[in-house]
Design goal:
By secondary structure, the protein is mainly alpha-helical. It contains six helices and no strands.
Amino acid sequence: MDKDKERVGHVLDAINQINAIKQNLTYEDFVSNLAAKWALVKLVEIVGEACIKITNETKEKYPDIKWRQIAGTRHILVHDYNVIDFPLLWEILEKEIPILKEQLENIYNSI
């Protein structure tokens, strides 16, 4: 299997896990449920790490994906864990993750 396809698959797996955890969560549940909150943080880190490892060649073919922002989010979650902006993370989970999932499903099917 192509390494990029494998990495895109890892991202999609993480997104599916995000969606499973987040399925019936409100923002209030998210911030008060420590297990769910930190599981979602870890899964977004995994999304970022797998995206970082996708080759530049593939990234250049799909410039509509916010590769740099994904990597930047991962960097903040890993290195600045004590100042995570949870309202912003929730917005990413609500708005950006569904878009990314659709984009990556298209890539996965075309690689």
